[in-house]
Amino acid sequence: MGARKRLAAIARKEQKKKLVYAILRHCPTSPRKMRLVADLIRGVEVNKALDILKYTKKEAARRLEKLLLSAIANWQEKNEGTNLNDVTLYVSKIHVDQGRTLKRIRPAPQGRAYRIRKRSNHVTLFVDVKNENIENNNDNTQEKAQAV
């Protein structure tokens, strides 16, 4: 590996250390069904997202709830001195990717066979601290711009 690639890899590792995330791999539901639930909590505050997942009837919601709790625990591990009640955490990014597809065969009429695709997915959930001061400053700036 060249020096430039090595330095870039080191920089990526340092950036990744600052991120707080949790990954769920090989979840045995289709990515489409998981995305329906993931879209409900994208950009939402953590406590509200947990409530949404708790009262959603889909099976994918239970798996995402555990994943979100894992991401919160990861945040607490990286920020030991900070109290969870003092900060506002939110789901900054969540993406669902397709995982391995198991291909099975089902008997069909007249000696044929139908193919069954048992899909799986990978979910990555990022949690971040919402900076309320920055949002308040942006609101004040917009109000001043409208006044002028």
What does this structure look like?
By secondary structure, the chain is of the alpha+beta class. It has a single domain, classed as Ribosomal protein L22/L17 (Ribosomal Protein L22, Chain A, Alpha-Beta Complex). 49% of the residues lie in helices and 26% in strands. The chain has five helices and five strands; from the N terminus they run αβαααββββα. It has a three-stranded antiparallel sheet with strand order 1-5-2, with helices on both faces. Strands 3-4 form a two-stranded antiparallel sheet. A hairpin with a 5-residue loop joins β3 and β4. α3 packs antiparallel against α4. It is extended and about 70 Å long.
Distance between the termini: 56 Å
- Looking at CATH, the homologous superfamily is Ribosomal protein L22/L17
Number of domains: 1
Structural class by SSE content = alpha+beta
Percent in helix: 40-55%
Major sheet attributes: 3 strands, antiparallel
The amount of beta strand, in percent, is: 25-35%
> Briefly, what CATH class?
Alpha Beta
Number of helices: 5
Task: Assign the CATH topology.
Answer: Ribosomal Protein L22, Chain A
Name of the CATH architecture: Alpha-Beta Complex
Shape: extended
Question: Layout of helices and strands, plus pairs?
Answer:
Blueprint (H helix, E strand, L loop, with lengths): L2 H16 L1 E8 L3 H11 L4 H9 L4 H20 L10 E10 L3 E6 L5 E6 L2 E9 L2 H16 L1
Antiparallel strand pairs: 1-5, 2-5, 3-4
Helix pairs in contact: 3-4
